[in-house]
């Protein structure tokens, strides 16, 4: 087994994860089998309980592992399936050491960082590196290890010591160190030293492996690993074509992302990547309009009573509704807690009533069901017990096997099979007319099985269920151009060359290509007769309906630009890779 270690210095956020993924792809393109390990020095056992604002999204693996988002990059770039053990944390290592101490495995010795913790780290790396992740038998040829954080962080020190020992343990020719850092170029000298690779700003993230290839980074790494004589030249023809195509796209498709964690785009990283994969497949330039779910809401009685006075409407709400109404499609992603939920419900209602392509994921599906129950079934207090434990019409309930006392690792996690109840539905067709599909889950609440008959009689079809038939996985509105909700997270298995079918359906519907993608997709010419009756007032092109559940406001306003507009992972000037 050969090992490539990727570390970072000076500042965090330089792009170690993408660099590690790109190195792995480059080595794979040379004919080698590659696996990956991410080391996170924090004391958490895993990323499952960490805030998306602080750490970005929690990426979920087939085995239910809740891991760092960099493992998502590894899976997307290398098209592999990793395990929970491919993400090492300080918490996991110390738990393993303490468990051994409690069992008496150290035979009365004083347990110390060196050698016990450092040995545990090395043993873990060697064990996990041997696990096949590409669907083939036997171990990979190369394991790419990324050490999170920055060299010098106190929590990283046991790992740095362990990896230093590990380089001697595996021997010369089996270990290569790659350090990612800000490297100045002195004008007097005009050049950098040998084995320094420059990763400058790029137009899209898929160009990073091409930068490495053009500067012969693979040869430098292969030389250290004594592999130059046994590999071929890198074959990145398809990857290059995809990167070039992404840059040439100009015809836009606008997707409104109605989320709770819009302050950090990494909170929805896999969703963004899945949208990108699908938009490139449809030959469209992706534009994500960030809509803060809370900004769509009417939150106070004062706002309701003054809503007809245009100047009294908060500018943020006007801007949020303007973005939503200007989008070609609407995506409501997952999340936890009641903040912004009413805004997600309003977005689902707007998509349903105005026949806008819609995809609701996890909580997004649940809010779509709540909206349907309230506004079509006229169950005005319909809700999830997550937000209102005393609701008389609980259309979303806590799962019986969940835990209300322990948060970490207690949800319904990992790959589960969804069985289509009919193949005559959009989602089954988008998956290739299969009878079942395996997707990854992460949730504590589910649609109430006792309300399914009532919901379906009103027109909401639950076309995908679990093996028991009691757990709802996919819902659709058959007469809507594209209105799909899923309990699982299809974004986690989307790949650059193999976009998720449901994301592909959303993008295709948003740009008028769905009938080409799945002929006879069921699009109806007649409008869906599911709107509430009420009085509509138009102000400056905005509709306000005085319906049975109170006043709803859809306002236009100035647009909000996405945070720095960098959706494709462009990195700061001057990043350098030392090999």
Automatic annotation (TrEMBL):
One BP annotation, GO: 'de novo' CTP biosynthetic process
Keyword Iron: no
Entries under SUPFAM superfamilies matching the protein: Class I glutamine amidotransferase-like, P-loop containing nucleoside triphosphate hydrolases
Pathway membership, UniProt: Pyrimidine metabolism; CTP biosynthesis via de novo pathway; CTP from UDP: step 2/2
Catalytic activity: UTP + L-glutamine + ATP + H2O = CTP + L-glutamate + ADP + phosphate + 2 H(+)
Residues covered by the CTP synthase N-terminal domain: 2-192
GO function term, MF aspect, one: identical protein binding
Keywords for the protein's UniProt record, in alphabetical order: ATP-binding, Glutamine amidotransferase, Ligase, Nucleotide-binding, Pyrimidine biosynthesis
Residue ranges constituting the Glutamine amidotransferase domain according to the UniProt record: 265-507
EC number, UniProt record: 6.3.4.2
Pfam families reported in the protein's UniProt record: CTP_synth_N (PF06418), GATase (PF00117)
InterPro entries documented for this protein: Class_I_gatase-like (IPR029062), CTP_synthase (IPR004468), CTP_synthase_N (IPR017456), GATASE (IPR017926), GATase1_CTP_Synthase (IPR033828), P-loop_NTPase (IPR027417)
Similarity comment text for this entry: Belongs to the CTP synthase family.
Purpose of the protein: Catalyzes the ATP-dependent amination of UTP to CTP with either L-glutamine or ammonia as the source of nitrogen.
Protein name: CTP synthase
Lineage: Eukaryota, Viridiplantae, Streptophyta, Embryophyta, Tracheophyta
């Amino acid at each position: 087994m050969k090992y490539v270690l990727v570390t970072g210095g000076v500042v965090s956020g330089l792009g170690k994860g993408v660099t590690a993924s790109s190195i792995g792809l480059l080595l794979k393109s040379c004919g080698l089998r590659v696996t990956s390990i991410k080391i996170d020095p924090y004391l958490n056992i895993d990323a499952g309980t960490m805030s998306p604002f602080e750490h970005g999204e929690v990426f979920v693996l087939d085995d239910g592992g809740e891991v760092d988002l960099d493992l998502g990059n590894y899976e997307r770039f290398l098209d592999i399936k990793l395990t929970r053990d491919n993400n090492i944390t300080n918490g996991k290592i110390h738990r393993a050491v303490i468990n051994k101490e409690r069992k008496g495995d150290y035979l009365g010795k004083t347990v110390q960082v060196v050698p016990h913790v450092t040995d545990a780290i090395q043993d873990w790396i060697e064990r996990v590196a041997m696990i096949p992740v590409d669907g083939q038998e036997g171990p990979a040829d190369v394991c790419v290890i990324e050490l999170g954080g920055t060299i010098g962080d106190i929590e990283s020190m046991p790992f740095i010591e362990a990896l230093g020992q590990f380089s001697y343990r595996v021997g010369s020719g089996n270990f290569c160190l790659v350090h990612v850092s800000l490297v100045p170029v002195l004008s007097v000298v005009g050049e950098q030293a040998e084995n320094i690779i420059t990763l400058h700003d790029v137009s899209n993230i898929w160009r990073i492996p091409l930068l490495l290839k053009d500067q012969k980074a693979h040869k430098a790494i292969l030389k250290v690993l004594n592999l130059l004589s046994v590999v071929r030249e890198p074959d990145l023809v398809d990857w290059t074509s995809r990167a070039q195509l992404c840059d040439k796209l100009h015809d836009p498709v606008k997707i409104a992302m109605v989320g709770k964690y819009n302050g950090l785009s990494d909170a929805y990283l896999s969703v963004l990547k899945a949208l990108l994969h699908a938009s490139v497949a449809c030959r469209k330039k992706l534009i994500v309009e960030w809509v803060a779910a809370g900004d769509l809401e009417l939150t106070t009685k004062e706002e309701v009573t003054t809503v007809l006075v245009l100047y009294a409407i908060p500018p943020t709400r006007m801007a949020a509704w303007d973005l939503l109404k200007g989008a070609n499609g609407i995506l409501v992603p997952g999340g936890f807690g009641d903040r912004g939920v009413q805004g997600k419900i309003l977005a689902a209602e707007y998509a349903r009533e105005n026949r806008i392509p819609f995809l609701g994921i996890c909580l997004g599906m649940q809010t779509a069901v709540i909206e349907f129950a309230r506004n079509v079934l006229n169950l005005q207090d319909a809700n999830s017990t997550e937000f209102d434990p005393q609701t008389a019409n609980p259309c979303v309930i806590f799962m019986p096997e969940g835990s209300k006392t322990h948060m970490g690792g207690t949800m319904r996690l990992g790959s589960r099979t969804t069985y289509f109840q009919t193949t005559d539905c959009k989602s089954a067709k988008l998956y290739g007319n299969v009878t079942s599909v395996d997707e990854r889950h992460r949730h504590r609440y589910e649609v109430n099985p006792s309300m399914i008959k009532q919901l379906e009689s009103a027109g909401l079809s639950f076309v995908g269920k679990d093996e028991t038939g009691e757990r709802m996985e996919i819902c659709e509105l058959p007469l809507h151009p594209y209105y799909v909700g899923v309990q699982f997270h299809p974004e986690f298995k989307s790949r650059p060359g193999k976009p998720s079918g449901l994301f592909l359906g959303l993008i295709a519907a948003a740009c008028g290509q769905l009938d080409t993608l799945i002929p006879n997709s069921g699009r109806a010419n007649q409008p869906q007769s599911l709107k509430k009756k009420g009085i509509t007032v138009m102000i400056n092109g905005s509709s306000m309906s005085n319906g049975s559940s109170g006043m709803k406001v859809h306002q236009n306003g100035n647009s909000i630009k996405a945070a720095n507009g960098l959706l494709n992972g462009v990195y700061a000037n001057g990043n350098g890779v030392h090999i």
